[in-house]
Design a protein that fits this description.
This protein has 3 domains: 93-124 and 133-295, no CATH class; 301-401; 426-522. The chain contains 25 helices and no strands. It has helices spanning 36-47, 58-67, 93-124, 136-145, 152-156, 160-169, 174-184, 192-196, 200-222, 226-229, 234-253, 257-266, 268-272, 275-295, 301-330, 336-355, 364-373, 378-387, 389-400, 414-420, 426-453, 461-480, 484-493, 495-499, 502-525. It is globular and about 70 Å long. Residues 1-28 are annotated as: Disordered.
Length: 526
């Protein structure tokens, strides 16, 4: 599930491998009480790079607007900041601030230069004689010709995920967090008057157009030879895609991306609950992640096999644990407080096991790309089936709405095809979704009572949400004899019907509301 809660989908297996390592997911930050670091983590999870923000991540824009405090961050420094850090050595607080300030400055330069280039190229191509679309390779060449400054992260050999970990160590430092916010979402150069002329309907239309343009970019890039794709850096791929989409937006819609961002903030409350806007932002995020993933080399087949084996082992352990936990809870040999303690202990043990594995951490897109690359290997196909990855990817694809996009849809694994033979009616999926709501509500009410009394130790919001989902999912499986994986695939099959079903949509929205309630309670107590 997307963490913004925007998708109108049946809750899939809460113990399914949304990420490679943990079927139960590693303990994560609360969905409420959002901070700059947690938003940065989410953006890195989705995109893999920070980007210049030429095409804004509208979901992040809304989240930042929602968590903004009265103490607005200081304006970013325009002058260059001398970074005193030395590659390979630990960074002090002062050096972290230097890196952040200089990265923000560089991002501002990149954003301004690429936006100006997009404007120039859009104007040039407005001439009928120059209607030929700019190719990805040509656009990338024009980016390189700008001679954009390097970020200090590159000079220090520091990955963005490593920076993320450093920021988490300074999460209570207001100055560091103010810099992190600017890093997450660079200050734009929007014109307030132009932005006022963009209606909410226009904002949604523009995002729909951006989705179509990004589909074209992704399709073109995937058609390049593998060797050519991997000659691009992740940041280069992202910036080039931003340039191409920006050109199309300016040329065909006569609007600037930075003005659209201001309009997004203006209609913040209305857009938060707009399903089409949410769908578009998820599609853009998914396609950008896919684009960046396609530029990166795949892990070796031997490592991928190890990853799949670990996923399969974790999934089996998690399912066995969840089944026993539900049986004990239903038999009243374990109350909700005891269920949480057991769930938290299992989650921590799974995290410790994952930390001990020296394997690359792959995103869902990287998993899918690896599966495609090694699909001819019988062992890979068998382990893929046993890992449970197919249902997880099917749900994520359905959530993002990109199945079949631009002719790049992935063929389902043979095992998935077999499971799709066990079809459920859309009406049954709706009933399961409604039962899921009833079970979530019942379990959440009991959990809320424990949290309000002051549970010791304080409950973690992420663990609490996973627990109530697991118990509710087990109840649905017991009633209908249908596994969460089968429910996920059924939801994928009936996507078009379910998205228009008022009962299903209402039940899904209620699920998100319930989960956010327990997340909020845990955050208040922590």
């Amino acid at each position: 599930m997307s963490q913004n809660g925007s998708s109108l989908w049946l809750q899939g297996d809460p113990l399914g491998p949304d990420e490679r390592r943990l079927p139960l997911d590693a303990p994560r930050r609360s969905m409420t009480g959002v901070t700059e670091v947690s938003l940065l983590s989410e953006k890195l999870r989705r995109y893999g790079v920070l980007g210049a923000g030429v095409i804004r991540d509208s979901l992040t824009t809304l989240q930042l607007a929602e968590v903004a405090t009265a103490a607005a961050p200081a304006e970013p420094k325009e002058e260059r900041v001398v970074v005193t850090a030395v590659p390979g050595e630990p960074l002090s607080r002062k050096q972290i601030l230097e890196v952040l300030h200089e990265t923000v400055r560089v991002q501002g330069v990149v954003q301004q230069e690429v936006s100006a280039l997009a404007r120039k190229l859009a104007k040039e191509r407005g001439d009928k004689k120059k209607r030929r679309p700019l190719s990805f390779a040509d656009a990338h060449k024009k980016i390189q010709e700008l001679g954009l400054p390097r970020e200090p992260l590159e000079d220090l050999g520091l990955s963005e995920s490593a920076l993320q970990r450093l920021l988490m160590e300074h999460e209570q430092d207001e100055e560091v967090m103010a810099c992190a916010q600017r890093l997450l979402h660079p200050v734009g150069k929007a014109d307030p008057e132009r932005a006022k002329g963009i209606t909410m309907e226009r904002v949604v239309d523009i995002h729909q157009f951006m989705v179509l343009e990004m589909q074209k970019v992704l399709q073109e890039f995937l058609q390049l030879p593998q060797e050519a794709r991997r000659s691009f850096s992740a940041k280069g791929v992202e910036t080039t895609a931003e340039l191409l989409v920006s050109i199309a937006v300016e040329q065909q819609l006569s609007v600037r991306c930075e003005d659209v961002e201001q309009a997004v903030i203006r209609y913040e409350e209305l857009l938060q609950g707009h399903p089409e806007f949410a769908r578009c932002t998820e599609q853009l995020a998914n396609m950008m992640q896919h684009l960046i993933g396609a530029a990166q080399p795949r892990v070796e087949k031997a490592e991928f096999v190890q990853i799949l084996r670990l996923m399969g082992d974790n999934m089996r352990e998690a399912k066995a644990f969840a089944k026993k936990l539900y049986e004990d809870y239903r038999a009243k040999s374990c109350d909700i407080a005891g269920a949480y303690q057991r769930f938290a202990a299992f989650s921590e043990a799974a995290q410790a096991q994952a930390d001990g594995e020296e394997l690359p951490d792959l995103s869902s897109v990287e998993m899918q790309l690896c599966r495609d690359e090694y699909a001819e290997d019988p062992e890979v196909r068998q382990l893929w089936e046993q890992s449970g990855a197919e249902s997880s990817l099917a749900m994520q694809t359905a959530i993002a709405g990109v199945a079949g996009v631009a002719g790049v849809a992935r063929a389902p694994a043979p095992a998935a095809e077999e499971k799709r033979g066990r079809k459920l009616k859309s009406s049954e999926v709706v009933e399961m979704q409604e039962l899921m709501v009833d079970e979530l509500k019942r379990t959440t009410e009991l959990a809320a009572a424990v949290v309000k009394k002051g549970a010791t130790p304080a409950w973690r919001a992420d663990v609490a949400m996973q627990m109530v989902q697991a118990l509710a999912s087990a109840a649905v499986e017991r009633r209908y004899g249908t596994s969460a994986e089968e429910m996920t695939i059924a939801g994928f099959q009936h996507a078009a019907v379910l998205q228009k079903n008022e009962r299903f949509v209402r039940a899904t929205e209620k699920q998100q509301e319930i989960l956010m309630t327990i997340a909020g309670l845990c955050s208040q107590e922590s």
